[in-house]
What we know:
This protein is mostly helical. It has helices at residues 3-21, 26-32, 38-45, 60-76, 100-106, 113-121, 126-139, 143-156, 158-176, 181-199, 203-217, 232-238, 242-250, 259-271, 275-288, 290-300, 306-313, 324-331, 333-336, 339-342, 348-359, 366-378, 380-393, and strands at residues 79-83, 108-112. Helix 7 (126-139) runs antiparallel to helix 8 and helix 11 packs antiparallel against helix 12 (232-238). The radius of gyration is 24 Å and the shape is elongated. The two termini are 21 Å apart.
Amino acid sequence: MSKLTVGRIIQNQFDLILFQEGSFSPLNWMLSEGYLDYRDYQNWRKGKSEYLEDHFKVKSTVLFSTLERLKDYASSLHLKAIRQTYASTTGQQLHSCRSAKNEFIFSTVYEPAEDRMQMDLFFDSAAVCTQSDLIAAIIERRSGDIAELLDKLESNSPDKHQQFVQLLLVEKSITQSKQASDKKIQKLKKITPLAFEVLGRFSHDFLTPLWHKLSIKIASQHFVPDSPDNHLSYTAFKGFQWQLVLQSIKAEEDWDKQAILLFRYAEAYFKLNKESLGIANWFKLFIQFPENAKQLIEKSCNRLLFSDWVLFSELDPELEISLFPSWLLMNKPALAKNSVISDIEGDDAMQLIKSLVCNNECNINENTIYLRAQLQQISPGLFTHYMNLEKSAR
């Protein structure tokens, strides 16, 4: 993968978190991208692990090299860098890394400068201080402090008080009511934007345990196409439980005949840093369900394939959506030689592209001419792009 593509991928990741949470936290980025398991994070917060870096899913050198690039990107956006310290549930200071430099990078959060100036201006106000204390109490599950701080907030900021009450009512409904699981899932989905607005980068500490509770509740339910979110693959995905996503999908008969399950299956592999398996299942999605794949990749802003999808969608002449995998193999020959991806049973055009890529190491021969003729007959548009690519490579 080119450096340019990698740059776009991590910028997409940064932009998405910044848009959702109002700030960018390296910790939340690591959780959402599969570089850190949520259970390991919880144990660290409880003081059961001395350094969080012992649980990173990729080498620290690679991870912090990427964080340096994200730091440069934040600077280009003129974001304000602030320091975020972490404490255990018992109040002890936590350390993410042994290296002071890496510790600093990990604990630097980026947010819009205007918001920060406003926060600094009103930082001493009772409402802001109360909100900060209330967020900490909610995350740490200190029920007595929550009640006291809510009463205090009601007197100096009624609107904010109502938002916090709304969040806590949904939490109580999910953890204590006997309401059907599908209703609870819809409630939690609906309240998520408010959680991001009110809790910011701490929203995952509030939302994720609730998704875990719902996962336990619906663990034995089978997938129903008319209610796709009422399934363990959805709640586990929202709770960063990538292996559980895979297990829940594999337990379903003919799961690969459901577009949304294929999508979740592929995405879970990406989160587990198994890119080849992720791409292979995305290819199956495009081949079997092209219209669904188009909607899903555009909504998800898939980190690994989105840049290629943008280029594909701007082609002239245009190609059918189902030809995206074939076009991608043509432009990235190394994928066609990957054993996981090369085993996919695609359409005739894909099989021809695979053969042409593998045959391209030799000089043009009768077999190459034959394969090109077959491709021209099956897909004139793809053939045009193939020949243009060949000409530019000479």
